[in-house]
Task: structure prediction
Amino acid sequence: MNVIVCGKVIPASTVTIEIDPNTKRMTRKGVPHELDPAAASAVEEGLRLTEKHGGAVTLITMGTSDSTIGIRNALAMGAASAVHVLDDAVAGSDTLATAKILAAAIKKQPFDLVLCATESSDSYSGIVPGQIAHFLGVPPVTFAKEIAVEGDKITIKRQSETGHDIVESTLPALVSCSSGINEPRYPQLKGIMAAKKKEIKVYTAADLGLSPDEVGEKGAREKVLSIGRPPKRQAGKAVTDEGEGGKQIADFLAEIKVI
Amino acid sequence: MADTIWVYAEISEDKITTTSLEMLAKAAEAGDAEAILLGPASDEAVQALARNGASKIYRCADAVYKDYLTLPAAETLAALIQKYHPAVMLFASSYVGRDLVANLSARLDCGAITDVGDFQLKDGTVEATIPALGASYQNTSTLVNPGTKLLVVRPKSFEPKLNEKPLNVEEIPAASDAGLQKVRMKERVVVKREGPSLEGAKIVVSGGRGLKGEEQFSMLKDLADALGGAVGASRAAVDAGWVPYAMQIGQTGKTVKPDVYFAVGISGAVQHLSGMKTSKYIITINKDPEAPIFQYSDFGVVGDLFKIVPQLIEELKRRKGA
Result:
């Protein structure tokens, strides 16, 4: 079973993300990057499925040269190869342009299953997986908490507002993985060494047959008009507990007439 | 003539969801609100749409929309949009809403704006306000595609409003093509909950990583019970497996807006803040005085939650008895 994992390499969680007021984009250059933890879970899920059913995992990502560290991480976890869409022309892509690019890159590989996180941990739009599924012409099977494959049948436990649903479809399909679907493995030394020899294919938008008008800011349907910090909430009172903290909260509740 | 704004109405436990009613209120204020309702629903649910401002309801009660995910509904909506060209179509930021918008935006090549907190419509141009990156930045975006603009709206962005319109229902044909029946809903499992629902509770007591384990959540339950509230959690606590996802508050969980929100052992990642920061009062208990959550709280106590929470529960009992 060939599994493609679409994942993002994002500024590390330790970094406070700043937005460039001129380009109105996140500042991605020059800050430490990591494989999005949500993408790492999708890689882990792909590895577990291929360990059980045979086959290999390929990571596909789009991003700047800072992405290499995250790609290597996925390879060190056990992905067999990676595809990196690396092209200044794709910067400023909105969800739709991103999905077109990723779908075009996926189409160049053989695949039975595409796995994504339900959303990236830096922009959270949550609609790119469904858009990719449409461009690939495969069923969108979303918000999986558990995945089981049997022959060409795929069954997931799908997150719902009130519990979960059991949803089934047939392969090839795209499945988005909810956060917490698994605990991603840490790369071991052997994996890290092996990762150095694994192939990373690099594509530009043109390699994927996409015109400059379809990608990046030009191809984006969504345009950011303005950006700023929202009005700050006035921070209230804070006290250090000196043995009366619980009582002080009760006093506050009485003050605002909740008790 | 007012712009036509469509709202995709969702049903949960045979009722129109609160977020659908919130969107209808905004749609009726910004233009002429119409609703689309697909799948089996009671007459009462249909009437609720008219009562809340829908001047027209496009409806198909076929079970195909309940039994198969996304594709049949997207097919029907795409056909309707191409026929009637509403200026804007609103979807809730729910599982159903996000899946439909993903498919429609790709199918109609029109893009979409997600996580919308508010919007304005001027001469066919939509300007949406988005609390980007959780809560730390807010931006305004527009869509430059011609035709209908798709927006995914955050729950609790607007207040539902009674606005009675004459019942005007147009029955539409079902998307019956077998090729759309690819993602089958086999079973729905509803997890029973006790006490008030998180979304409706006036008091919410949430725990995070600082709780250190599953058992300690019973302490938060005691606090919530003492105040007639509900218990929530941060993503860290849910990911750790201590509590079910249904309790998760934040960007990828529920959005709540209670009178009082307790953040206990929660640092206040943007993920979490975006799901609770509009609460009327925020009370924080955390051992780290540098935790970002303190910047949002009305009253904070720096200290050991395992001492402070039990003391608070005792104090509430004492004052109630007094």
Remarks:
- The helical segments of chain A are 37-53, 68-77, 95-107, 128-136, 189-195, 216-219, 245-255.
